[in-house]
Design a protein that fits this description.
about 200 residues; about 30% strand; single chain; 11 strands; alpha+beta; 4 helices
Length: about 200
Amino acid sequence: MASNSSRRSFLLASAAVIGAGAFGLSRLAMADYPETIVGVPGKVKIRKFADDGTDLGEVTVDKVVKSEDEWRKQLANAPGTIAQQGTTAFIVTRQEGTEYPGTGPYAESFDAGLYRCICCDNALYTSKTKFDSGTGWPSFWQPIAEENVVHTIPQQGGYKVSCALCDAHLGHVFNDGPQPTGLRYCMDGVALRFIPSPVNKPA
């Protein structure tokens, strides 16, 4: 799995040419993906989960759609270690950018809990399927529910993964993960929000 440590090697290489740090990331994302993902209206079936991981069943809901300005404002204070003026989460989720490996949150965290979409709170992954991929990005061998994520166009040797509820770009999935699935959902940490398991929370 270490051989795939640069899951988006062409993006990182291009960013190095354009400029180092978050400014390189921002400019690369803006140049390569000029259209902001605001969301596509419609209905979607997802599986809802409580913060403690309890399965609340499948529901049909309206997709979350917001304007570019609304997404920018919402994500302005989202976590991100390479953010400049709070733009990293916006660039990653709404413009298909990427965070540099080892810079985002959760890559080295293995506390028990639930991972939700930073944009819409859709449940995406659980710590029970998280593993150390050695890549610098949080990795999982399956989503919490297949209905909650969407695999779209092939990219960089894998498939782009988006949130089913709000169309946020989350990362990519590859066929070099551990059993039982053999998959590696390699996610951008800034696209996720971690909810600690109640047993891990201070009394």
